Amino acid sequence: MQLDSRLAKEVVRDIVDEEFTAPPSSPDVDLVPVMLHAVAARKRQLIRDLLLTLLVCTAVWGLYSSRYVAVLLTLALCWVVVVGETLVATYGVVAHDLRPGRFQPDAMSPPGNSKLGRRLKQVAAAGQGNVSVYSGYTPFVGCGITLNSWSFALDTHQAAAGRIAESFSALEIHDFVQEQLRDLRTGKVTMSDRVFVDGRDIRGDRRFLPDQLDVPRPAVDRSLVRSLTLEPEDQARPYLTIQSSGWRGQLVLSTFLRFVVTPQELFMEVSHCLLAPVRDEFQEVDRLLPQPTLRQGIRIGGRALRRTPGHVLRAPFAIAAHLLSPVTAALQRSRQRREILSSLRFNYGAARSPRETASDSRYQRYFQQLDNDLYTKVIERRLLQSLNRFLESKGIDTAELSQHRTTIENHGVYVADGGTVKAESLAVGTGARASSVLMRVANAAKQGVNEAAGRN
């Protein structure tokens, strides 16, 4: 938030200033101090833009009056302003307040703005809740890219030799598997039930939206979650959520598990989502001394020199947008209210989380890739073992499950459309070998799976 003005602006616009949409949840991240730093950074950046705008006006006057020395001096002062703001952000805030050993999440003063305070309470509640209201195609908002997905259906009428197949409910198998997975030690593990609902479908559903001009509920009763597990609906999907966090939060694997029991089949669905490490440019806090050295000062000056033209060009528009923000905000609220009250389709879903935006497109350490494999494979192995035990206890033949298990283990990784995670190497499919320099993007990985399937 402090080092990237575009990111801070995006967070303030899409999360802080929203009145009706659900705030995103973010695994292993407390978004409240993130929001406060975004707001504080925007105030400082607006001061920078105001100074740049005044200097731009001076430069235009210098050109008009043929005072070219004044123009050159003004451009140099623009660079000085950008350097000054960068130094304040880097050493006045990041190196002073956010470096290891000094960071205090609760150190920032509570906002005097009642609207901001109310929104921050909603953000905090979303982080502790059990409902995700999503706005796009993928329901697992805040959890990164969908790295691996698979599902299958089993015939539950096929009895094992000498046994009678017993019927069971989705709650029975859900509770059994959850209990079997409680002692997982794949990083820092949390496990909970969570409901995912599309923000376009909750109007009129008081379970998730108490009032049409209110923010969606961040949490629902456990009885409702269990009822949805037992009797699934099209638009509200409950998942057993397993989150494995490692590398001090730099790597977060979220596994979503769902069972559906029909009169003749058991359907099982598993999705793995990955939050990759934070981009290296946002880890500068770990490389900063409390006071800048000459080398770091030169580096900041060079960075400011590269960024000055863009800041200068955007500054007048940023100031104009800020001056007009009360009007534009009122118009936006009016438009949203009109859409809601006129029964037009309105999307209450959460935007992308800042943690997702700041994620890298590749693993940064070789062992991070291996640890992600560890988390995924251990969870899947324990999951399939638990499922096998449950079916055996019900007298159901597990031969079909063994075939599915072999297929899952032999066919490697499937990366969903839109995925962008890269790694040092990737092996996909039966007998495949990891030989590429970087992990292929999602479509290439998907193509590898198809080619492996064709060879088989």
From TrEMBL:
Keywords: Membrane, Transmembrane, Transmembrane helix. It comes from the Bacteria. The chain crosses the membrane at residues 46-64, 70-94. This is Uncharacterized protein. It comes from Kribbella jiaozuonensis.
